[in-house]
Amino acid sequence: MKRELIPLNMLPLGSAAKVRSLTNDDSRTRRRMLDLGLIKNTHIEAIQKSPSGDPTAYWIRGAVIALRSDEASKILVEAVSGE
């Protein structure tokens, strides 16, 4: 059974996922996401929201990266359990 893809900004805190695709039209933003290591199959965890709710901190490849909701909405992920 194939799991549903969701935008990264919809991933609940404390949950993990794998990046499946970037839907960004802006080549500069897309390049930035790739430079941060957001490529297919990258493991990512939502770890903390700012007090205002945006941005959200994500654990990506051994680093904590903060992404605003509009950026994270362009990253499609597949939720995973216990990895």
Provide a concise account of the structure shown.
The chain has 83 residues and is of the alpha+beta class.
Q: Which characteristics define this entry?
A:
SH3 type barrels; 2 helices
Tell me the helix content.
Answer: 10-25%
Overall average pLDDT: 89
User: Which class in CATH terms?
Assistant: Mainly Beta
- Secondary-structure arrangement, i.e. CATH architecture: Roll
Count of the domains: 1
Distance between the termini: 18 Å
Reading the helices and strands in chain order gives EEHEEEHE
Q: Using the CA coordinates, give the radius of gyration.
A: 12 Å
Return the CATH topology: SH3 type barrels
C-alpha geometry: globular
Number of H- or I-type helical stretches? 2
Given the helix and strand composition, which structural class is it?
Answer: alpha+beta
